[in-house]
Design brief:
Elements: H1 5-39, H2 41-63, H3 65-73, E1 76-77, E2 80-81, H4 82-92, H5 98-102, H6 109-121, E3 133-137, H7 143-149, E4 155-160, H8 163-173, E5 181-186, E6 199-205, H9 213-225, E7 227-238, E8 244-247, E9 252-255, H10 257-266, E10 271-276, E11 287-292
Parallel strand pairs: 3-4, 3-6, 4-5, 6-7
Antiparallel strand pairs: 1-2, 7-11, 8-9, 10-11
Bound molecules: S-adenosylmethionine (SAM).
Protein name: Alpha N-terminal protein methyltransferase 1B
Keywords: Methyltransferase, S-adenosyl-L-methionine, Transferase
Pfam families: Methyltransf_PK
Length: about 290
């Protein structure tokens, strides 16, 4: 069918107008679309996924000690967990003396013992923990048993993985007080099962650093069960100023206090007091005392 000329022209014109409008619209729309996307949640999500997720992952690796330390503390060589094996090797060469127990800081032993005595006073006595029996964990030669626990508790038990420390404690270091030691356990704390409902106080000093997070948590759970009514667990250790650090020399982990709190919380214990040990030289890693029930 023939189309009148005027009609054809007007149709073409209309067509062009449509095209121009479409062009203008699509150009505008593209711009709008881009800017809408840039401000939309999905854009942010995509951006986060691309950049921030990776950054967070790296942050996690850096900041979460469990992630970073796991391969180090749980490395097995020929069936041996290297973290524990190295500590065992280290202490084999350590002398059974106060110097051996304190490393380079033997001169601060009396400050340490006085700080501990003052801290412990707050949890023992009428209406609090009894004074029948205490357990010294990672006791070494019994420096704390002698200076802090034996003056308060009638009887004591001691546990350490090194036989030569326990022998020295019994035969020499504790003198006549050795008669009040009911049992010396030569055990690794990660395997040690304290008897239930036996102790008024469980003291864990400068040895929690030798246990992995998981083993420490499980050990604390067992210690909780070993408490008599009113009993208290005291953990005293070096605490990192930031994060978590592994010392490959003696195979120990220094944890930030918050990380330690997390482990204690996971063990189902309630922290009743936290105090920094004062009077130690600034170059030393801060030492904190934590009492829990
Ligand atoms: C730095 S000394 C501290 C001794 C004592 N607590 C003191 O403050 O004088 C660490 C002690 O923990 C013991 N130890 C280290 N790792 C242990 C483990 N996994 N189980 C039992 N004892 C351990 C060592 O044999 C050593 O006697």
């Amino acid at each position: 069918m023939d189309v009148p000329i005027e009609e054809t022209d007007s149709a073409t014109l209309q067509n062009l107008e449509h095209k121009a409008a479409h062009q203008a619209f699509s150009e505008r729309w593209k711009k709008t679309d881009d800017s809408m996307c840039r401000h939309s949640m999905s854009f942010h999500l995509l951006h986060s996924l691309r950049t921030e997720f990776f950054a967070s992952y790296v942050y996690l690796l850096e900041k979460t000690p469990l992630v970073k330390l796991f391969p180090v503390t749980c490395e097995y060589i020929e069936g041996e967990k290297q973290f524990y094996y190295r500590a065992q090797q280290f202490y084999e060469d350590v002398s059974a003396s106060e110097e051996g127990m304190m490393g380079d800081f033997v001169e601060i032993s009396h400050v340490d013992l006085e700080g501990s005595r003052q801290f412990l006073k707050r949890f023992v006595g009428p209406g609090l923990a009894g004074t029948e029996r205490a357990l010294d964990c990672g006791c070494g030669i019994g420096r704390i048993s002698k200076g802090v626990l034996l003056p308060i508790f009638e009887k004591m038990e001691m546990v350490d993985m090194m036989e030569h420390f326990l022998l020295h404690a019994h035969e020499e270091y504790l003198g006549d007080d050795a008669d009040r030691i009911e049992t010396y356990y030569c055990y690794n704390l990660q395997e040690f099962m304290p008897q239930a409902k036996r102790y008024d106080c469980v003291w864990i000093q400068w040895v929690a650093c030798h246990l992995t997070d998981k083993d420490l948590m499980n050990f604390l759970m067992r210690c909780k069960k070993s408490l008599r009514p009113g009993g208290v667990i005291v953990l005293k250790d070096n605490m990192a100023r930031q994060g978590c650090k592994l010392d490959p020399v003696d195979s120990s982990i220094i944890r930030h206090l918050d990380i330690m709190r997390g482990i204690i919380f996971k063990a189902g214990l309630e922290i009743v007091a936290v105090e920094k040990q004062e009077g130690f030289p600034e170059i030393m890693v801060p030492v904190w005392m934590v009492a829990m029930k």
